[in-house]
């Protein structure tokens, strides 16, 4: 089964892809920043005459500038979102007449990029409706973030209030990843950011595009997806492993976030899904 969707939004273009391992070399185009939603071992990339082999965790961020990146030796099902910010948007964020080049990234953890990619992924899958105003907000926030952190230049100073800085976002993200199997409250996350729960919740959504509970749930479902594809754990065991004790609620939440039932992704079921003529497909 292969799903691919390409969307043009205000200020950016995004590509979503879910595909089984095919042995075919794939390419990420110029000036993209994206997220892998799949776990991989020993993936190989080549760009600008350089070759790298590395592992990928679900949620890892990758980017490249003007040189495309070629991917090979992908041996597991792959799911990704690539985001191509428009040149005009990047120039505006940089306050420059020249388009800044995005710095090559490999396996970075970044809550802002992950939040944006998670929203776009669900829009590609038809699981949420995202209107042009919200996408425009996401695009501007992402461009400012990319230029400020991954373009090698300092963007013009703007009075950006009500957002968390990168240090606090990374601290909160570390707490979430370390405690995905535990009950988590907004108080726990607010404490990591040294803010009140009310101010933290508002600032976190302003920074990532996701409310704290949406961010935590998204990471839990990605962890569950990885376990379904790579482990022999039962569905109830996986639900408990990602902090959910109600298996029925887990199944509903998983389908709402991924478009699949947990049983659809069990290795023993993959052949049936791939061979089924009724398998869903996305069109660009």
Could you characterize the architecture of this molecule?
By secondary structure, the protein is an alpha+beta fold. It folds into two domains: 3-158, Sandwich (Jelly Rolls); 160-277, Homeodomain-like (Arc Repressor Mutant, subunit A, Orthogonal Bundle), CATH 1.10.10.60. It is built from ten helices and ten strands. The strands form two sheets. The protein has a six-stranded antiparallel beta sheet. Helix 1 (87-94) packs across helix 3 (132-150) and helix 7 (212-230) crosses helix 9 (247-258). The longest helix is centred in the middle third of the chain and has 19 residues, at 132-150. The two termini are 16 Å apart.
Q: Outline of this structure?
A:
The chain has 284 residues and is α+β, with helices and mostly antiparallel strands. Helix content is 42%, strand content 20%.
Main pleated-sheet profile: 6 strands, antiparallel
- What coarse outline follows from CA principal-axis ratios? globular
CATH topology of the largest domain: Jelly Rolls
Q: Name the beta content range.
A: 15-25%
Based on the structure given, which CATH architecture of the largest domain is correct? Sandwich
